[in-house]
From TrEMBL:
Cross-referenced SUPFAM superfamilies: Formyltransferase
UniProt KW Transferase keyword: yes
Protein name as annotated: Phosphoribosylglycinamide formyltransferase
Binding site for (6R)-10-formyltetrahydrofolate: K67, M92, R93, L94, V95, N109
Role, per record: Catalyzes the transfer of a formyl group from 10-formyltetrahydrofolate to 5-phospho-ribosyl-glycinamide (GAR), producing 5-phospho-ribosyl-N-formylglycinamide (FGAR) and tetrahydrofolate.
Species whose genome carries this gene: Gracilibacillus marinus
Length: 192
């Protein structure tokens, strides 16, 4: 059986990248991680990918004239690796039309809130400051908006009385690390 080829995009720590690698290793996710795309040459995720032997495309957006230029390069890299599904995992950049038109309906994102609540940056801090009693995690298809695409999966996280911001972040990330691999597997099984 030919495995679905994934590209993971990350900008920072890469704990979701780790969770996906682990799910593949333990056969909970039947896919092949063909490439890590990273827009931050100082990101921690790069060391992890080196250690795991994941092929990488690391770029510095400042070295390109504009987003269309670096996204054209990304499209080339993804096509060369025959990528089927693009997984945004902490890629802190709005995807532009150049990349989106090639991967429409084949690009998903994880966001640390129950969308449509708290889109954009620091969703965990936004929820914490708003004093809501429930937040969570959303996985959605990517469209041209900021965290606006069709929702695929959500899981709630209760914000307990006296919970610190750090504790909320840990609770949300714990959910992310099982929900993302599980949802990717469901999409693959459904042939999406
Ligand atoms: C994750 O919590 C992810 O949901 C969030 O960035 C974090 C990356 O962590 N993404 C967004 O906020 C996108 N709007 P990681 O690098 O440890 O996977």
């Amino acid at each position: 059986m030919i495995k679905t080829k994934l590209a993971v995009f990350a900008s920072g720590t890469g704990s979701n990248y780790d969770a996906i690698v682990e799910a593949i290793r333990t056969n909970q996710l039947d896919a092949e991680l063909t490439i890590l795309v990273c827009d931050n040459p100082n990101a921690k995720v790069i060391e992890k990918a080196k250690a795991n032997g994941t092929p990488m495309f690391v770029f510095d957006p400042k070295q390109y004239v504009d987003k269309a230029m670096f996204e054209t390069k990304i499209v080339e890299v993804l096509q060369e690796a025959s990528v089927d599904l693009v997984i945004l995992a902490g890629y802190m950049r709005l995807v532009g039309p150049t990349l989106l038109q090639h991967f429409e309906d084949r690009m998903i994102n994880i966001h640390p809130s129950l969308l449509p609540a708290f889109p954009g940056l620091d969703a965990i801090g936004q929820a914490f400051d708003a004093g809501v009693k429930v937040s969570g995690v959303t996985i959605h298809f990517v469209d041209q908006g900021m965290d606006t695409g069709k929702i695929i999966a959500q899981e709630a996280v209760k914000i307990e009385e006296n919970m610190t911001r750090e504790a909320l972040q840990q609770a949300i990330q714990k959910v992310e690390h099982h929900l993302y691999p599980q949802t990717i597997q469901q999409l693959i099984s459904r042939g999406e």
